[in-house]
Amino acid sequence: MLLLAPAAAIAGPGKETPDKIERLDSVVVSASRAGDKTPITFTMIGREELRTFNPVHSLPMNLALQPSVVTWNEGGTGLGNSTMTVRGSKGSQINVTLNGITLNDAESQEVFWVNIPSLTGLISSVQLQRGLGTSANGSGAFGASVNMNTASVSARPFADADFSAGSWNTCMTRVAAGTGRGKSGFYAHATYSRGLTDGYIRNAKVESRSAFAVLGWMNERNSLRLTYLMGDQRSGITWNGVSRANYAIDRRYNDAGEYKDEYGNVRYYDNQIDAYNQHHLQLNYTRAFSNVLFWTTTANYTRGYGYDEYYKPGRALGEFGFPSPLTGLDGREHEKADLIYRKKMGNHLYVLNSDLKFSGERLVLTGGVYCSRYLGDHWGEMLWNQVLGDSYDYASMNAARAWYSNNAVKQEASGFARGEYAILPRLTIYADLQLRRIDLDMIGADDDAASIDYVAKWTFFNPRAGFHFDLGEGHLIYLSAAFGHREPGRSDVKENVKGILSPIEPEKMLDLEAGWQYASERYSASANLYLMEYWDMLLETGRLSTSGYAIKENVPRGWRRGVELTASWLPTDLFRVDANASFSVNRLKNFTAHVDRFDHDWINDANPGWNKMEQARETYSKTTMLLSPSIVSMLRCTCTPFKRVARGSLKTTTLSLDGKYVGKQYWDNTANADRCVPAYFVSNLSVSHEFDLGSGKLGLAGYVNNLFNRTYYASAWVYRAVFAEGGAYQEEGLYPQPPINFLFKLSYRF
Questions:
Q1: C-alpha 291: how far from its chain's center?
Q2: CA–CA dist 631, 251 (Å, integer)
Q3: CB 578 within 8 A of CB 568
Q4: 600 near 607, Cβ under 8 Å?
Q5: Is the pLDDT of residue 63 over 90?
Q6: What is the pLDDT of residues 541-567, one digit of tens each?
């Protein structure tokens, strides 16, 4: 590619036109996006639709109405930890890119959306691909891809400000300004936001900040841009959930940081939090050698740093690097004590990404290379020990990393070539070939002192092919087949290593997609059939490592098969109806669940002497995957009632009512009716109005979430045990969603 790029510089400068500038601007993300004739199942969300979203909600929450998408928020307000699944595929199986650079953490393969607050207000478009999608950088997409673009260049100077306030002391402030592109080609853009909430759940407090800045220069043939993105958050820990018994008494209960003082009174540690700070710096250069040949290169550096802080009562001191027994200030020996500690992490990610694209009348060719190096560091710090008090030198202990320390280096080199060729005026064939090489080296001890030393090298070949056929009169069909691999994540590896089990294998999937689409002036509709066939799928089976951690194991065979239907209707210019529905089966074949077994009823305080035995096994010839609803549907009605009859700003008044239905989901892979999330239906209402003040526009908006005040929970986890003498024990965590709540937004832009 480096040899091709200079040789292709054959076209001289021409007259600058806005459409060419816009096209050059969009090249930054085009390599990882599907085009109009790419036989990939996807939806696009543009700038205008993004502006209508609830400003407090994280991006996953604002994608909740897309086909096959299920989202929920731990704290209940939209700020804080949010989770999104697509076709039942969880976050670590969803590839997320920003301007073509992956945001997935290289170790966990997750995107922690709480670490990038107010992202919806920073991006200009989102493409959500379902299935394996196009070749993507970083961890392979194993259910969906989210491709975001911040690169849009404003033609004119602008400034805007939003202020939002709502239930549970939730507020969000955002200010943005940009110079627009001047005659010399230079432009600048900056955005800052700050969000606060107490949260619906106890301890769901969030304080978040984000900053975004762009400095760039562009002419007809060249674009140079420096982008900075910062996310900083402090949020209360809410991932424990609430037990079923407590859910019936107090839906807002959260046991994080709970302890008893010396008089037996229940207290809560106020600083039981998750804190993280992340900085992204991207330098992009794009060159248009001609009207059909484009080259873009991006260098990225990401720095992340954070910790979880805990108060833990009655913990064994020997597990935290202290002598056991430990002589305290009272002169007595202690084996247990209350502790305050932090689990810390820091990481660096270096990326170089380069793409070359030829876009002819009948042929579109794209090729790219991606190289990354990730350095991840994990360690523990002790802040306070009940036995030693405040006078102990914890700093020296932490400097020596006496509790635990481990780190990892993960490197990736990948390349892809993709082509679309119109062999007939209406028939386009598609091929996409990707080769990935991953090296992982982990070393050190985990927080239970167990070694997690591990070295692995993987090489994956991921091919894709298909065709797109235009039937005429608004109809088209497409068909595609793709095969992909996904390497294990850090938690998958380390618990398997500590469990001393057979080597963990990468996951493999064959994705078959067939679709039909129709579009006219008033109607649009689509139907998509998918078959996602898995081999060696990594799932929690209930098996535990020697230190008691949940282990993911390769399940030999599984599948997700379904149909997705979408439709929209515009009966008049005043009213619009959008709907989608997904119906699926999500199965595992020959699945073995592992359940802890004990020889005493260890939850009985009168008989605390219990002993752990070999785990019991439950075998299922066929069962349903956890947290994978078979039905997901949505209906949204949007109305601009005064668009024709009114004058002035009344024409902008917009009302939107939507409803989302999510079918029954199971807590684990046993498909037991006693361990399921019941089906739920939730509705939201929004109203917006914009005044034209001449010098600018003043906007008002109101959002009513859970309009009909439904009581439901959206997800759960479970732990089970059985006893040799008979009987069973179960512990669970449910994630209740809030009752009816409100948010109001005031904005000004010019």
A1: 36
A2: 26
A3: yes
A4: yes
A5: yes
A6: 776 655 555 678 889 999 999 999 999
